[in-house]
Amino acid sequence: MSQMLYQSPAIERLGIPAYNWWNGALHGVARAGVATMFPQAIGLAATFDRELIQEIGDVVSTEGRAKFNEFSRRGDHGIYKGLTFWAPNVNIFRDPRWGRGHETYGEDPYLTGELGCAYIKGLQGPDPEHPKAAACAKHFAVHSGPEALRHQFNAQVSKHDLYDTYLYAFKRCVKDAKVEAVMGAYNRVNGEPACGSKGLQNGLEKISKILMSALLIMIVVLAVHSFTLSGAGEGIRFYLIPNLKTVKEVGFGNVVSAAMNQAFFTLSLGVAAMEIFGSYMGKYHTLAGEGLRICALDTFVAIMAGLIIFPAGSIPPGNSQILQQSCYTKNHLSAKIELFRLLFNERKGDFNGKSNKFYGTYKMDVQVSHCICNDIFNHTSLCEFHQGKLLLHLTIPFEEKPKTNLPSDNLRYYRQRKQMTTRQLAEKLNIVPATIVMYENGKHPIPYAVSIKLADVLEIEASLLYDDFSRFLAVPYTEALKSVRTALGLSQKAFAEQIGIVPSYYYKIEEGNRRPSRKVYQKICAALEATGRQTSLLWAQPLQ
Question: What domains can you pick out in the chain, each with its CATH number?
Answer without folding.
Answer: 2-195 (3.20.20.300), 200-313 (no CATH), 320-393 (no CATH), 407-466 (1.10.260.40), 471-538 (1.10.260.40)
